[in-house]
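Journal club prep — side note

Before the paper discussion, L.F. wants everyone to see what a predicted structure for a comparable chain looks like in token form. Sequence:
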Amino acid sequence: MLKSYGGYVAKAFFPELFPAAKFYADLTGEVLKIGPGYRMVFGDGEPQKKFEEGKQQVQLQLKLVPNDLPAELGFSISPET
């Protein structure tokens, strides 16, 4: 019953959850094609570039994001619920 109710609540109040989960799953699939152990990260802002002693340093601000949110939280979703 809880699974049915959870699916109903998710579909009723968060209809964008299903397309968003598919979008992130597709992105994760692309990352995993490059390397099976890789994780997806997002860049936060523009890279900071600094030149010192003829060398260029680039500083990146990265955010770790869930590669498969439902699986990482221990549940599954389907649009049929």
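L.F.'s comment for the group: The mean pLDDT is 81. Keep this in mind when we get to the figures.
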